[in-house]
Amino acid sequence: MGGLILRFEQWSPRTGCREEEEQSNEVWVRIFGLPVSLWNSTVLSGVGDECGGFIAIDSQTAKLEELQWARILVKTDGEVKPSMLEIGVEEEVYSLVLWWELRPSVKKTRIDS
């Protein structure tokens, strides 16, 4: 269709979900509430370390192309992810809202006999 190839799949409850055994050790985190003036590698890597371990800064964040949030890639260990984080910069404390870009997962039900 107009040079595009389309493929249709039958929908299922698993569509868009990851299987239980598909463990990723990296996840993108969007940070809301951090002033753009603090979007530098030192502050963003510090936030990343608090979230499990800093890996990288999203290219749109580095270029200030998307100003609604900063986005970083962090290590993940499968633990509970915080939805808020407070950081101190000089004499100010910022309350940041974190949005973890995790796909829902599907687990198999265990039947005990």
Q: Which geometry do the CA atoms define?
A: flat
Low-confidence stretches: none
Strand order of the largest sheet: 3-4-2-6-5
In this structure, how is the largest beta sheet organized? 5 strands, antiparallel
Instruction: Kindly estimate the percentage of residues that lie in beta strands according to DSSP.
Output: 25-35%
User: What is the CATH C-level name?
Assistant: Alpha Beta
Number of domains: 1
Using the CA coordinates, give the radius of gyration. 18 Å
Mean pLDDT: 83
CATH-defined topology: Alpha-Beta Plaits
Class by SSE composition = mainly beta
| Quantity of strands, as a count | 7
Our count of helices gives: 2
The CATH architecture classification is 2-Layer Sandwich
Taken in chain order, the helices and strands follow as: EEHEHEEEE
Question: Can you offer a commentary on this structure?
Answer:
With 113 residues, the protein is mostly beta strands. It has one domain: Alpha-Beta Plaits, CATH 3.30.70. The protein has two helices and seven strands, in the order E-E-H-E-H-E-E-E-E. A hairpin with a 2-residue loop joins strand 5 and strand 6.
